[in-house]
Inverse folding.
């Protein structure tokens, strides 16, 4: 059965909490899209604004949500963390530098994007970073690598064995929901499936009842779904319907 992962693009902590509550008990994993307003235009929780002055290399204390700071200080956890696992989709410019910070949120999975500034500038350094993550951390956190449909899929080949899965983006403009599907991602999936038969391939962006069958047929194992779940009147029924697509 295909794994269905509800995707949350949280406007703030309350929005995050409310959306997790809607799928708690029905989804094993939820994806939290973390956008810093630098790598992508959108700023989501835990960032309070786009902070155009931020250079993307450091956290600004006054630009972070108070709940985020409390979680880092082990005063609380992510909402409903006892009932659901989380994967963090890091659409941020400084993912490598602040990996330890995001790891403190207690995620089951963390996704880096090839297009991020600190990754794109030196893929060999990124590979070394992945291979240098402490083995005990890798035992509890799966690492994924995201690739957009406009990037040459061959660019990710040298990194596949250093990650646990690949996330193929179904849209070119990351950090938003409701974007038009880019069918070039289907070629990415087919090529990856043919070259790496055992690879877990996740797809995020413009996944719907119309696009899901083609994505599964191409070789996807996981579907990350935002608006096609949360913008319906029957969230639980929609999750079950996606699970039953073959």
């Amino acid at each position: 059965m295909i794994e269905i992962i509800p995707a949350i693009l949280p406007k703030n902590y309350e929005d995050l909490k409310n959306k997790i509550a809607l799928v708690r008990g029905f989804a094993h994993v939820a994806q939290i899209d973390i956008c810093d307003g630098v790598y992508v235009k959108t700023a989501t929780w835990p960032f309070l604004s786009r902070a155009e002055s931020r250079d993307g290399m450091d956290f600004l204390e006054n630009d972070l949500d108070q709940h985020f700071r409390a979680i880092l200080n082990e005063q609380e956890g992510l909402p409903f963390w006892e009932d659901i696992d989380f994967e963090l989709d890091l659409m941020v410019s400084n993912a490598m530098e602040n990996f330890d910070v995001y790891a403190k949120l207690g995620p089951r999975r963390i996704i880096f994007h090839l297009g991020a500034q600190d990754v794109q500038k030196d893929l060999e350094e990124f590979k070394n970073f992945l291979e240098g993550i402490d083995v005990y951390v890798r035992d509890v956190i799966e690492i994924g690598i995201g690739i957009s449909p406009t990037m040459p899929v061959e660019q990710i080949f040298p990194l596949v064995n250093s990650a646990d899965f690949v996330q193929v983006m179904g849209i070119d403009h990351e950090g938003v929901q409701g974007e038009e599907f880019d069918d070039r991602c289907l070629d990415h999936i087919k090529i990856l499936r043919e070259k790496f038969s055992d690879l877990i391939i996740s797809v995020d962006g413009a996944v719907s009842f119309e696009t899901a069958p083609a994505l599964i047929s191409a070789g996807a194992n996981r579907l990350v779904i935002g608006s096609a779940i949360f913008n319906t009147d029957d969230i639980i029924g929609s999750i079950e319907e996606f699970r039953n697509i073959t």
